[in-house]
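Worked problem 6 (solution included).
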Amino acid sequence: MPQTPIKAGLALTALLVLAACGKQAAAPEPVRAVRTMLLATDSAGMTLEYPGDVRARIESRLSFRVGGKMMARRVNLGDAVKSGQLLAQLDPQDLLLAQEGAKAGLSAARTNRDQLGADYKRFIELREQGFISAAELERRDAAFKAAQAQLDQARAQSDAQHNQAGYAQLVADAPGVVTGVFAEPGMVVGPGTPVFSVAVDGPRDIVFSVPEDQLARVREAAALPGALKVRLWGENQASRDIKLREISAATDPVTRTFLLKADAGAGFDAKLGQTAIISLTLPRTQQIIKVPLTAVLQAEGQTSVWVLDPKAMKVAPQAVQVGGAEGNQVVIASGLRPGQEIVTAGVHVLTPGQTVVRYQDPAAGSAAPAASR
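Solution. The predicted structure is:
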């Protein structure tokens, strides 16, 4: 019995030793070698590019002025049309009947006017002979004038019905190319319903979209001569100067971009709808900071770089705002200042507060940070 406490103590000691052996010490965080650079001010002249397409300066949507059943379509998509050419036709039967009714009304009004005019002349003679009173003559005069007004009204209605019958034929009002067909024979169309879209021959525009945050810069730079250029996609042609002509007053509700139109100028040989690349050369900006593309980290919707504390040799993330790109370098709009040292390689494997060492190139034999150029 006296040996029992001793045995229990030995067993407890053994268990504690085994538990201590089961816990392994945490591995120390590795010290990574990174490439760094010292920031300095520089200058940059960026070129922005936007996709666009070639469109006609004027593109009309043609429609009938009256409603009815469409009987025939004379042109197809892509056809070239001339001014006055017949494009489509409605069933004119009801319009012709209305025209005949208006003509009959005009004939009746004319007959009534002539009859009252002849009566008025006879009543003038009777008044001169004293057989009727002046009041009676005035009533005859008023009746004649009313008949004349009814004749004028009937004539206007007849002319209107004649025009309505002519509106059963849809003709091109200018030469151009059919770019859209929206109705087929047999359909009943209402007045103003688009039937064709026609790109009118004449000047061509280059249409492209610009994000909201770049509009002011594009507007300012496009005012400089030769800053805005265009080249056609897939063609080995030199870029040509274009001039900004129109900026939309509101953004597109879906893409949140502004629509811009530029004048392609005379002699621009391009097909409608052809893809174009618009390039805008921005003026060179002084006193800016540029960093290599490899130094920029994008995570959780935020752009950042790793800034090195040269005394503690630890890194910390620094949020930055990107102002553009020039080749393989990124222009930093805000977030950094000259004299800071940043990591330019290995940014995806670092953690905040991690200890690092500067990478030493064996050929250079030095670990000093490179200067920003």
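Discussion: The chain has four helices and 26 strands.
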